Fold these 3 entries.
Entry 1:
Amino acid sequence: MLGMPSFLKTGQIGDGREAACAAHVENAVPPGDIDAALAAIDRFARDQAMLVNIGDEKGELLDAAVHRAKPAIVLELGTYCGYSALRIARAAPAARVYSVEFSPANAEVARRIWTHAGVADRITCVVGTIGDGGRTLDALSRDHGFGDGAVDLLFIDHDKNAYLSDLRSIIARGWLHPGSIVVADNVRVPGAPGYRRFLREQEGRSWRTVEHKTHVEYQSLLPDLVLESEYLGG
């Protein structure tokens, strides 16, 4: 909590823990071992310094959604240290993963971890935000081939206030197709009430949503929600 003002401004807690996590992975894990890299990040977050990635408990929900989606193209909003993109790359080894992150420092940490884990050729970090007036969306289209129905899986784990507006921007671009799966973390804590309300209002019309009851990352007391939504079109 003490680090939240810095996190909201810079994307990092402010005490160097993100770079320290990358160094821990590089020093503790053999190159090319995705499983060991993920386990090392989890150990670091539990034993050394809390990290605001999806974590191991909720990560299993993400893994299951990836297996259901069988994606060729994944779009992630919120890279942080690269943990969730690493999980996605492990669960879908044939997929291309594109992760949008507003913090260049976080992008550098994530790239270090992906490189060490041997998946840097399958994950691309795009520095920007969906809400920047279209510049990042245009870059994804121009530089990475995003177009009609391109996105099989969308994972949302960034600014909670932007969940709904960013989802709407992606829908407006036509990048989802019937059967695309959208997974959103932290819908209860810190919370994304507008996003949750929108999906409830659209249930059975444009969306079909399952609300997974779980816990805030790396502890078992504070409840959280992960929403998994299938796009029906329209």
Entry 2:
Amino acid sequence: MIPMNPIQSRLQAHAPLILDGALATELERKGCNLNDRLWSAKILIEQPQLIQQVHLDYFQAGADCATTASYQTTIEGFAEKGYTKEEALELMKRSVTLAKEARDLFWQDEARREGRTKPFVAGSVGPFGAYLSDGSEYKGNYGLSEQALIDFHRPRIQALVEAGADILACETIPCLIEATAIAKLLQDEFSGTSAWITFSAKDGLHISEGDFIRECVQALEPYEQIAAVGVNCTPPQFITSLIQEMKKGTSKPIVVYPNSGEEYDPEEKVWSGDTSHLTFGECAYQWYKDGAHIIGGCCRTTPEDINDILKRTTS
């Protein structure tokens, strides 16, 4: 079966593709308390309408894609809060439904959609480290086998696919073994599904666990279902170097969606420090010139940042 790939046709129509920005940041701005092991997945239970509104805000700002609120949704995480496996899977599916409903609401507005390609929905697949809720997505070194990681990711991927996600966003992956586990799982069990895989990186050369980014994207090159590769939730100052390194190892489209440049404290679950001295749009224009095909924002970025990307890269 040929995997569906909403990226390829859209990049032929226009580039760059613009992703959304931070979901959790916007939920907090709307009054949500996310200091919880479930993080933004908590709001799937409490106030799902706010998630839909954030997706709509990003579409209106110029995003071509909504990334679902499933980053930290796992059967294990929900079980710790007293939810059954069936209830957990339904909440994962709800994340896709909310994004699709927001997309359809946006698309009904003829004035706003003029000149736009109909947005698509990416089902967020966070790393095993996100379930641990201790910052491990920025460290790796889980000590798990490839098969254990395959078994961990299978149920959520199944739920997101069944709910109708157009593509999977396998993001903030800190280690190569987890990336190849996901790629093999898709190849063996989800042949009609495509995904992008983005790593978290600790500098301009290495992903969080220490492997060279060039070698990581090169290892994913044979997997047809991996439609794009890149980095996310990484400080903006490393992105140009990382793009240059990835271009040496892959022919796939390169996706980047950095954080604001602030530092995250996994114990207090707060961000601090300085952001880039350039606007996000100014940075994005440079990343586009460097060779990134798909650009958005991660933690601490906003609809205003996404609109800035739109203006800077399409003017």
Entry 3:
Amino acid sequence: MTIRVAMWSGPRNISTAMMRSFGSRADTVVSDEPLYAHYLAATGLDHPGRDEILASQPQRWEDVAEALTGPVPGDPAVFYQKHMTHHLLPAIGRDWLGKLAHAFLIRDPGHVVASYAKVRGEPTLEDLGYPQQVEIFRTFGGPVVDSADVLRDPAGTLRRLCADLGLTFDPAMLSWAPGPRPEDGAWAPHWYANVHASTGFAAYDPSPADIPDRLRPLVEAARPYYEELAAHRR
């Protein structure tokens, strides 16, 4: 029976590298941000590659949910779903989520906001996805991994994550060939240059976050959500 892993992450994290990691397993197929087209259609936001994204995925969340919980071509052992928590809009039903095994990739909000501010000047708490992450965790539970821990100790952190998900750790998760992959979303040309150039997880950078003063209240608003999840990290 296929284990369906829904990995929930906010933006400006290592979510695409984590998708590469799981996609390097011989027993795994991956889905890249399957709710993105619905998110754009529902919000009307103009993201890079909007038209291509809307054409590449179902725009009704019900169709996405059916695909994520229905038969998986090839009947793989693992179906890894890379989700952005801010894509889970309030109008999306939640019952289908009970059919998935949830996991959570978190990052300190100071670093998230500092990075996000470079690509969008005024992010909101909902843009960062922390409230949505906590909502899913409180309802369904699941292992929590911090991106800093992954970068410090990829093998140890991934080994614990796999154990919590009922999977055998595969050393192939630690490296991958550079370049694009067929499963990359239609937005990859706009956002995946660093991942396409990579062959594994980047080295951990202990530098403090350079947070613009105007965004410090946002960091403080996000921190209680982060700390609630971080208390459960593996």
